[in-house]
Amino acid sequence: MGDVFDKVTWWGDGSTSGPAVIQPMDTPILAWRGNQNSRNITVANATGPPGQLAGTVLRKTVLADSSPYAPALAGGLLADIHGQMAWVDISAGQRLHVATLEIETRTFTFTGRLAGRTLVSDGVLSGRSAPTLAGSSRAFPQVGVVDQQGNQVVANESSPLVFSALATLSWVGATRGPVRRFSLSDVPGGRFLWAWTASDGFLRFAFTTSPTPSGETPAVVRSAQQSIAQPSVTSYRGGAHVGWTGVDGTGLLNVAALDLGRLGNGADPIASVNILNERGIGAPTLVGMAPTANVRTHRLAIFWAGTDGQGTLNGGIVYRE
After folding, report:
1. In 10 A of CB 14, how many CB atoms?
2. What residues make up the domain containing 73?
3. Cα(164)–Cα(153) distance, rounded to whole angstroms?
4. The CATH number of the domain where 17 resides is what?
């Protein structure tokens, strides 16, 4: 089993699932839904020794907004959007929201304010899962969620906090949580990778050529790996990696590199799994960290809610090169 290093446990801060995380610079910004006794959304800066997780503390802002599910974050987008958050509210309609995080551009820290917000699809969409946000440094994000009928629906952001009409990904099928989209370049079979956990617990993967493939029916590949919740996908040293919580009954966390060539040929893209000596509830979050002024190496980090009964938040580095 593999160990994480530079590990931090943020005692006193817990959730019912792993936190959403973005990494504007040396230390992360996290967002999570409260523990079993609280549904409020908290956004926090991890502050402490530059370039490391161990020894950091969370400088928190507890929002008035609440959710039955974990929120989603996207960061590093266009110049006037330094971070965005999506969540499903606790109203009877369980409406999907997206807000802009006000991030101080000198320190890359969250100021505690939401600079703007919107209801996706004018509040008509009713979500029954945690949402996802997918984007890149050259594009606005895409928001996605499972609706009340169990359909995977997505909408692209055409300008700040303005979303296109909803598109249904009918080829995804029933799932354990939302589908993840990951943008690729120079990859056989397509420009966009999709990853999700089907209702049978097995991970699924697919390529598409469009970020909103309403007219496509891509080939879907079933992996031999299983998860209790949706996976997390990120880039590390130019390659795609996936993380998930296993079905072993103890919540062991798993990380694997994806062989996209195998996926393009219709084969399971997971050939080798790093089973970590850590256990979590719900879905973990993987974050690829590029070199900075304080840390000159590439790092692959994982964040999760622990199995201590409080869902205590943790973070650690899986790989560093």
Report:
1. 21
2. 5-320
3. 12
4. 2.120.10.30
